[in-house]
Amino acid sequence: MIMWRETENSLYKRFEFNDFSEAFAFMTRVALLAEKQNHHPKWTNSWNTLEIWLSTHDAGDKVTERDRKLATAIDQIM
């Protein structure tokens, strides 16, 4: 499994799926998880690829424990 990496004050991870439907289904699960944690990622999606960046805006756009917690939760639903 590809690990999250810390870059430019964010945790970053790129996900690849078989097709758009799989990518979108995963995005939906992440969206529900993020809403539950009240911590929303920056992300981009192009067909089967999803890129996610996590940082805490309230902490000056830096990586905090909130980001690490959400990253771990995202990995668990993968």
From TrEMBL:
SUPFAM superfamilies: PCD-like. The keyword Cell membrane does not apply. Pfam families: Pterin_4a. Keywords: Lyase. The keyword Lyase applies. InterPro entries: PCD_sf, Pterin_deHydtase. It comes from the Bacteria. Its EC number is 4.2.1.96. It catalyses: (4aS,6R)-4a-hydroxy-L-erythro-5,6,7,8-tetrahydrobiopterin = (6R)-L-erythro-6,7-dihydrobiopterin + H2O. Gene3D superfamilies: Transcriptional coactivator/pterin dehydratase. Belongs to the pterin-4-alpha-carbinolamine dehydratase family. This is 4a-hydroxytetrahydrobiopterin dehydratase.
